[in-house]
Amino acid sequence: MKMKMRRKTFELVAAGCVMGMIFPLHVSAAVSDADFNALKNLVQQMNGKLESLEQTNETDQQTIRQLQQQLGETQKTAVDAEQKSIAAAQTQTLPRGPIDEATVNHNFLMLGDAEIQYVKASGQNGSFLLADFAPIFLYRAGDNILFEAGFDFGLQNNAPGGSGYTTSVNLSFAQLDYVMNDYVTLCAGDILLPLGTYTERGAGWLNKIPDDPLAVDLVPGSGVGAELRGAVPIGDAGKFFNYSVYGVNGPGSADETGNAGALDLGGNVGIRSDGVTSNLHGNPSGGARLGVFLPFPYKPHYDLELGISGQSGEWDNAGQHLWTAGVLDAALHLGPNFEAKGEYIISRFGSDDLGLIHQSGWFLQAGYKLAGLHLELPGINNVELMGRYDNIDDGLGTTTDRYTAGYVYYFTSTFLFEGDYEFVHSTDPTQVNQLILQLSIGF
Amino acid sequence: MNTSKQSKVPLQTFFAAVIATMMIGGLASTVCHADPPSGASSQTNSVESKASLPDTNNVAVKAHLTGAELYSINCNRCHAERYPTERTGAQWKTIMLHMQVRANIPVSQARLILQYLQENSGR
Predict the structure, then answer these.
(1) A415 at B interface, C-beta within 8 A
(2) How many CA atoms lie within 13 A of B37 on its CB side?
(3) Inter-chain contact B94–A236, Cβ cutoff 8 Å?
(4) Is residue A66 domain-resident?
(5) Which residues of B touch A183 (CB under 8 A)?
(6) Closest CA relative to residue A219, chosen from A362, A412, A416, A385
(7) What digits encode the pLDDT tens for the residues B10-36?
(8) I want to staple A442 with a disulfide (CB 3.0 to 4.6 A). Which of A221, A326, A414, B15 is the partner?
(9) Predicted pLDDT of residue A174
(10) Is the pTM of this model over 0.80?
(11) Residues of chain A contacting B16 with CB distance shorter than 8 Å
(12) Residue range of the domain that includes A304
């Protein structure tokens, strides 16, 4: 039995070997050349991509390293800045509070006004003109010290003597004000004179009629000297009286003579044309004003102001003749819509050729704002009607009467359009009727 | 000359009449629209007060005027009112010093006006 089993096993194994030799095993994934090449190409592409990714990664790594370096530098800068600010704060010895501008001890400011006119005088060509550019400079040097100065710029044709034009610059005033106490203020320099109130408180945009009253030409508007002024309250209802006392060089002579025509109200400023520092005559002039302001009891816009002023002193170089002037001034407000004001001015001066010259003039001006009529019409509330009568007798044979009717249109409280027609009657043939239109702005 | 004088008279009269008419018209308009005197009682729907009514014959007396009141009294006599917001506090200080000298108003009143302007200034 064992021999049979062994022989059968041997026969099976031999048969298997013979069959394996005759029928080799077929490989299930047979690869053709095309497939191989395709696979080869694919592997090569993969290798290429892998290399590219490796390069990109290297670049990114470099960028990251750079950014890390910059971050480090920025952090270092921030730390340094913080340390510096800490050090600066530690060295600051004085506490710095917020600046309250109202407490600033000095301040520079420019105010002023400008006027543009169209004028049509009877018998003359109508013309536009820059009537005035008048800046005012204020410098406050403390609580009680102010320097103020005003200029007037004007244009004038050079024709017929030449082409072009001349710009004239006039220093209208330049004074130092020192408030010594509640009742006394010292003013010195080229001071505005308190002869009446028109010149002292006037400006192009404040005067509701473009032309100044004729009579103000009888007195100087400014003079070089010094003044003490102040005001004292009367009770608690807003009333007060005020005063001004001053000394100035006074009027002078334009040609060194004492002839009437040589009177020069504003030309004696202390430095002569030959450079000598001297008053043109021997003694200065003195003047004063006393005024009272009476508001109606607890009624704003209802008030009366009265004043009396005067000045006297030599005027000719020889000191032989006096020039003296007196002014009565009054202003009345009855509500916010009505005002009236006027001045009466007289002056006297001696002369070599004509003896004693008497001059006089006065004006009365009234205005009424149509807003007081309570009319619901467009623009009417911005209109103020004006009227004025003024005259002057220069004591040298010329008298002029003038009647002015006009209006003010308020675009704003500081931008005005004024117009007026002046009816003039004068022994001076150059004084004629005229129409004036004016734009004025205060700033 | 006589002719011009004769023609002046009616023209003078006319303008004097115009100015006088303006003044009278202004006065009349002002009087017609005048505020009632202070202290007068007014009709209200409030509960009637048990306290005695003020004497309407006498104007109420105030102890002191405020800066705003002094401002309204003084600061539009020569020019139209300027509003406090137009300037900063420091500018008002400079301008008030200028105005105090120019208008020759009491320093004590100028101080109160300045305080009012600065409190309401355009900072």
Answers:
(1) no
(2) 12
(3) no
(4) no
(5) 107
(6) A362
(7) 565 665 566 566 656 555 555 554 444
(8) A414
(9) 97
(10) no
(11) 389
(12) 104-158+170-442
